Amino acid sequence: MMRTKVLSLTALFIFGAVSVFASVKTEKIKVNGKCGMCKSRIEKAVNSMEGVESATWKNETQELEVKYDDQKTSTMQIQTSIAITGHDTEMFSANDKKYAELPDCCKYQRDENREKMDHSEMTPGYKQGTSANPGCDHDISETAGSCCEK
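Predicted structure:
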């Protein structure tokens, strides 16, 4: 009987400790797109990330609802992953080349005043921040498919 109580308390303690450290967040992120192909592309990019529990994009609202472990990924990483596929988010604009590669049915109206990152004067690994983009923390090499303008 005593052994069962000790095991139960140990299990409860371990579960409680794990729960404290695992912080699952749910966020809604603005993501531009137009059709079912966009939905598949956006959700696949996010659901394939470590730490993401679920991601659902709705065309009607242009919003992605994502549940993720903030110890394993971040909003910035999630939005970077989306922008690399050719879709603009509230933090990042997809580079023009990636956007141009989207099928015609996926080409949404882009905001011509969107802020673009320019890495022409930067070296790989450097982080630059702007008012709309607090820091570009992804690979900026020519072969990386960066969301940023080259």
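Summary: The two ends are 68 Å apart (CA to CA).
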